[in-house]
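no rush on this but wanted to send it before i forget. theres a chain ive been looking at and ive put its sequence and its fold in token form underneath. i want to understand how the tokens follow from the sequence so walk me through it. thanks a lot i owe you, the record is right below:
>
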Amino acid sequence: MTLFPLLSLTVGAIEPVGAQTTLPDIAGHWAEGCIQELQTRRIINGYPDGTFRPNAPVTRAEFATMLDIAFSERRDVRPAIGFVDLPANYWATPAIATAYRRGFLRGYPGDRFNPAQNIPRVQVLVALASGLDYAANHKPEETLPRTFADATSIPEYAYTAVAAATERRLAVNYPERDRLNPNALASRAEVASFLCQALMQYQSPIPLEYVARVAIVPETELRGVWITNIDSEVLFSKENLTAAMERLAALNFNTVYPTVWNWGYTLYPSDVAKAVTGRSVRLVTPIDENLDPDLGVGDRDMLREMVAEGKRLGLRVIPWFEFGFMAPADSELARRKPEWITERLDGTREKMEGIHSRVWLNPFHPEVQQFITDLIVEIIENYDVAGIQLDDHLGLPSEFGYDDYTVALYKREHDGNPPPEDPKDPDWLRWRADKITEYKDRLFRAIKRANPDAIVSLSPNPQRFSYREFLADWETWERQGLVEEIILQVYRDDNRVFATELENPEVETARTHVPFAIGILTGLKGRPVEGDRIAEQVQIAREKGFAGVSFFFYESMWKWSEQSAEQREVLFESLFPEPATIPSLVDDWEPSR
């Protein structure tokens, strides 16, 4: 019987034999953190003499045993095969058979497995990509030569699988990240590192400086920026607006999302708003008390200027309907229309958002619905915009909905019974979310009647939070064909958490139907975000094959960081070195209406 070290990587409760508390020969090794992490979890040990021997090779039989333990939850994908060089009593025969059935490993011509052959690095990556069913999101013939200096050494049979594994960050290359050395024998430390990456992905302790990252510069990519009127003067003059648009165009952005509805006011001349609030347009927010409330208005139409500059510079303009059903508690809208405001069970109406007190228009009230619809259709009919963007405020905080109108509506549909007192009651959540979905359907149809080519974009929070906290069931909206572009707001400080948010099932499904991009925070006043994190999150979104990114928000792209504005420009130049076309709606998908 061959004596081999049990490099036991397991997702179950398998007890490693003879586990050591220390492995003296990995001290200072580049994979030390990975090996120690696996040992701490009691899923790795070394040789009987207490060493790990990180530079020793790994046989195909040993690797099959590792796969058997590490991925015990994987199901069979093909029937077993009898390898002529594997006696029934060979110590690794069961593990090899399992690795074959699960799709990880194949044999050689003549039904041979060659169990004692030392395995090369490329076979390890191909095995992991195959068994874990990884697919390349980008063209391997384009990405691999840009990623590895020795890409020409990758065997033809392995090209696609290596690309898929690299996109998932499985390729660990020490000491040079851009050299794969595909045909070199894989050492025990290298196999451990590949398995760490596969098992832990973005939480792996392998130093990022050795993890290969696919060099991706998509030819088709949404590159967006939100432009707002808080902590920014871009919208307050034509000169500022033009300069911002020219700056973005020069950096190869292709979409802007300017706010057009916030703080109880429209930022474009609106007859609908004037009829309800008494004012047709305001660019300065009420919290900017040191600024003239009429700054930037006069004879100007900010949105018309934005559209004209977009046409001139090749930037798509999609107005951002930022506040949705939300309004400041002291706004003229709230003062004039108190019957439109919803409330909690205890009758209170105000909700703090940071330091600001808000109220919420009742999304179930027909007059409120008509007002919001009229505002949006007014934009679509009067401006040559590419579409309209709704966000997480086209919903309702789930503690609300106990106003007289909504309670009466609920009672009519529930044999006179009042709504549950628990605002998180599942049926009560579902009833209100469904009502908002019904309105979203009517709104979508109204937009399409005004302009069939207008894109209905959405920038929601992750689904679970969006549904439970704001009754905005965007997963259902997308499945019903009520959304034609999604930019998921994933404002996370931890890149590992950021990456995990992109793997939720509803995200995976939606991205196959509509252009699905990722919203990335570039900073806030008092909350700077450094360039390395921005670049890493763009890279993650690209590796995972998303349709693009959009940054929140314009001013923080250049300000409030320790980096200078010039350094930040260099960052965005490096991210977007060439122009990119905008992704379009998948044509062959039919919504489940």
